[in-house]
Amino acid sequence: MTRVSIKEQVLNFILLLLVQLPLVHRISLFDKAFGFFYVGFLILLPRTFSRSYLMLIGFFSGLLVDVFTNTPGIHASASVFILFIRNFWLRASNDDSQEITNLNVASLKKMGFLYFIYPLVFVHHFLIFVIENGGFHLFGTVLSKVFFSSLLSTAWIFIINFIITPNRKRS
Amino acid sequence: MQRLLDFLYQQREIAVFIGLEILSAWLLINFNNRYNASFLNSSNEAAASITQTSNSISNYFQLSEVNQQLMLENERLQQELRMLRTEPSSYLDTVDQYQVVGARVINNTFERSANFITISAGRNDSIDVGMGVISSFGVVGQVKSVTNNFATIYSILHPKLLVSSKVKRTETKGTVQWEQEEYSRASLKYIPRHIKLKVGDTIVTSGFNSVFPENITIGVVDELNLEEHMTFYEAKVKLATDFTSLYQVFVIKDLLKQEKDSLAIQ
Is the model's pTM score more than 0.80? Predict the structure, then answer.
């Protein structure tokens, strides 16, 4: 088992969470895709952190985004949920997850990385849009927003992670 | 024993999970009510100044569009001024009653299920909770919360905001409410069936509450539906304000608000 890479976490924090804040309403494609890519920072927190600790980080990051979107509680609750299920999903989706500490494109392999993050991003966006919508009416519109937004977020997280991950193999 | 400890450890995580989710739900319910404390809003000083910085960068790319809008508005104002000069002073008391504060839009959403606008004017510019906000084209929304330099506004594209309105041609009172349609339209409600409403009728504010002055454009009726069993029309209004390009708004301060409201209580 390797040590937690502080540098990688700091870069994730800056490029995924801090960059999101001023951009939270500015990225929108065709009025459908919004992209809350800050969830990438949460999903890619080191595997070795304890779950309570993860959920606390998730709660406060979510709340920070909430301040910018005027939706106190929505992003916070979705983020806490994502971090609650993340380690289950990591174990289920990746066979040798127990040897990986730092989750990134290199350690999970490209396809494995997408396979790991996309469902989580989708669930996260689904929760946000459904809670914001206040129920299941106009469900088609909500679902299309979720679909396109989660694609956009996943693409952003993948690109950022691809750039900041060092090329040599490590886990 | 080890098993028992493991079990308790598992439970502890679930307790943290449930606790945090309940806290989020509490925030969601409490802070989504109308008019509330401002530190969890986009008008929070720290959050708003970050938004303002990013906005002032992107502003450079919108300059030509803003110029175009300002020119249009100047034209309209010139025209109104000419009308005022020719008309006798019946307008004067309404002019004195309202004070207008201009502000720059630093954040604006229109594609979400409930939309808010953040502007760069606050308590220091004598803006207060509950005031009406208009643009040069029509109604925009109502102030939700203020800090010293910023304010958050319920956009008319927020399902909880009801605007007291009337049909300009017939003077019929109704209510405009956004029911999560696309961002260029809203619903017009409570227009009774004996009124001959037409597509193309202009809908303006009624001036019945002290939020908006009378006769500010809300939009134009563009879809009508009246079936045999219905008491009221089912109408859609095309909004006059274009929320996709909203850069400058005006907050309306009603100087007689207190007086009006105290009468309503008595």
Answer: no
